[in-house]
Design a protein that fits this description.
Elements lengths: L5 E5 L5 E2 L15 E5 L35 H7 L8 E6 L5 H14 L4 E5 L4 H10 L8 E4 L3 H9 L6 E5 L16 H18 L2 E7 L18 E7 L5 E9 L7 E7 L2 E4 L4 H4 L10 E8 L2 E13 L7 E4 L3 H15 L6 E7 L11 H13 L7 E3 L2 E2 L5 E2 L4 H10 L4 E5 L11 E5 L2 H16 L5
Helix pairs in contact: 7-8, 8-10
The structure holds thymidine-5'-diphosphate and magnesium ion.
Length: 462
Amino acid sequence: MAKARAQYVCAACGAVAAKWQGRCEACGEWNTLAEEAAASAPVSLRTSGGSLIALEPLAGQSNALHRIETGIAEFDRVTGGGFVPGSALLVGGDPGIGKSTLLIQAAAALARAGHDVVYISGEEAIDQVRLRADRLDLKDAPVQLAAETKVEDVLATLTSAPPPALVVIDSIQTLWTDLAESAPGTVTQVRLSAQALIRYAKKSGASVVLVGHVTKDGQIAGPRVVEHMVDTVLYFEGDAGHQFRLLRSVKNRFGPAAEIGVFEMTGAGLKEVANPSTLFIGERDHSSPGAAVFAGMEGSRPLLVEIQALVAESGLATPRRAVVGWDPNRLAMILAVLEARCGLRFGSFDVYLNVAGGLRLAEPAADLAVAAALVSSRTGVATPVETVYFGEVSLSGAIRPVAQSATRLKEAEKLGFSHAFVPDAAFEDAPAGMRLEKVATLGDLVAELAAQMSGQMSGSGR
Ligand code: TYD
Ligand code: MG
């Protein structure tokens, strides 16, 4: 038998390297490679001796997908309508963000609705889970609890009874199996444990939820190493300094990806936020320069967010560029376009950009709002009131149209906005109450803002 060779596995992404390196070449994370015994050499496959499988046509009867709703609307939206029987769902997130809280609330909601629910905690003792349930006022919900980390024991218990509707495993990193010799939390252990539980889900029809911590050190495998095995991947995000939490679907075999659910962490658990726009534009100060409201989309849902910019004279040889909640490369691009196409100089200024409320934006449609905030802060004049912005800026300075403009405008109107700066392209009808300022280039935006701002300054208003 060949001697087991050592190999190095990245705890963040699961990539395998032949020798140790400080940085994983696959995902770029530092200090995540750890030694694990390599699987024995693969034997070559024989092509004879297997049994025949039936091949089916694409058209045919499939059972309508039946889902189990939790009744927590923000949660059900993100899963695409509830838990799917026989599927595996991964909920990832930083430690302390509220994953256990969210799942005990979802588990209790299902149990109260008469479903059979099992909650396996590998991290906390039963007493701790009970204390949390007490605090959340869920003590009466008939959830079946266990504190266990050995996969074989968990599976033996689950298979000894009719399959429950929902099994929550909190967390996948604490589980271990006899099949592997490596320590709990290593990539091998996490993958094997996840595989066994996913197989159980498919076979029994139970819906299995795996909780995974996003880890920063290389000793414990992160949730990314099981992402490809599960049907649905949700990430629970938030900012330690803020109350709200976002549940985001990044992969969903049974529903839309990129949906978000918004929650607020309160003293009595997670509360749903049904109208998140009010949260992110709530603390606006209309008179100070450097703020613009972006009419964004998160999945199928419109979301208004305030973008804040501060452009201040710099004493540094290389002025600072600091960004919270947006892509720094995109900020550099917008600044370059403003310099090259609109004649606004930023070279001797520090630039700070912040997305209100700790939200992270990924949409290029935010370009126009960012540009408006920058122009406003650079010129020292507040942007026009009750105005929203959306549009993608290209390197030529042209404003490109973005998807779902009607939905964005409708949300803006609903929240009392009356004006919108939008790309100068034909698009769906705007709500009657909205006045549109169509801008073809970034230069048009700067000129239009300058005109409106001077009107504002001379007191004529609008
Ligand atoms: P938890 O669900 O344990 O996080 P995770 O499982 O993701 O590690 O939540 C931990 C934090 O949430 C903790 O710092 C306390 C806070 N919290 C509240 O603010 N209110 C509550 O009702 C609960 C249960 C927790
Ligand atoms: Mg937890």
